Amino acid sequence: MPSTDHEQVPEDPVRLSRRSLLGAAAAGGALGGLGAVGPPALAAPVAGPAPARIGSGRHREFWLSIESFEQNLVPTGFDQMMGVAVSGASFAGLGFRGYTPGFGAPLPADDGPAGIGPNTGIPGPLLRAEVGDRVTVHLRNNDAEFRWPHSFHVHGWRYASGSDGSWTYRDRGGDSRNGAAVAYGETYTYHYTVPATAVGTWPYHDHSMPQFYPGADPSVANPMELAAQLGMFGIIAVTDADTPRVDREFYLFFHDLYQDDVPVLSQDFDCFNGRAYLGNTPVFEARVGERVRWRIAALGKEFHVFHLHGHRWFNGVYHTDSQMIGPSTTATIEYTEDNAGDWLYHCHVTDHMQGGMMGRYTVTA
Fold this sequence. Notes:
- By secondary structure, this protein is mainly beta.
- Helices cover 2% and strands 35% of the residues.
- It contains two helices and 23 strands.
- It starts with a strand and ends with a strand.
- The radius of gyration is 20 Å and the shape is globular.
- The strands form six sheets. Strands 1, 2, 3, 6, 8 and 10 form a six-stranded mixed β-sheet that branches. A five-stranded mixed β-sheet has the order 15-23-22-17-20.
């Protein structure tokens, strides 16, 4: 395949990430990553208002393939909360999938506290790094369904313009010097460093040229970041040497799809990790006494409210049981589990609950 390569606090009951709407105390995950490689090499720390201690100083290398597949948002065909059937929930989805070096084979699922998640495409694998790391991302466009150009764009890490992965209209001729229009069948390599100000949770996503889903009406459809709407997004977890370890780390992406943009759908859907409605969305599990961390993110155009029944946390100002996030924002919520039961987590925006944003959290004694 053709390839291009451009260089470029004391512990509270809960800690909420710097990467949140309230900008509260830092939190992160345990050390981990996809294919950390090479001899140790230290990138210069970036000065800022949120100091962090240098972690491993490693070179981390990720191999991400953009893949197309049929995605069914409601595989059971049923909403367990309302007791009704749901149809018309399948579409041609897109996602990032993590691979072994050289795109050898898909990485296995890992839902552990330092893992990458399910690695099924929606969302993409959780990418982990520490302050001071150098990061290389190899991207392969294997979108056999649409054969659109794609890109990889990060929030939080530091990069030169050649690794921005962001389409602009001056690129009408298909200029992909910044990795913004990686053609089908091609690869591109992006380079980053991880500054001290990056501790917390960040999104990554496709940021390539606007597209229309086949059959969409251009007078009502929104082509901006359609590939991200179809599933091309994921979460970055950045830690430092002071980040506490946890027993459980949950990875939750708020995700909305619109019938105007994806006309094969029977309605608008509001999803968690590419699934909608109770009985289809992820079931998270923990035990009393375990330290738990939620990494939450959203893109799109909606504002959401993450609410977890039977629990509360300190957000840096006051205790709460609900956290608002908006487009391209995140939250990192951490607490010691103390309440056994079968609990709901959901978006507290009523339209979004009706559209499918409900899930189960099971805690055993």
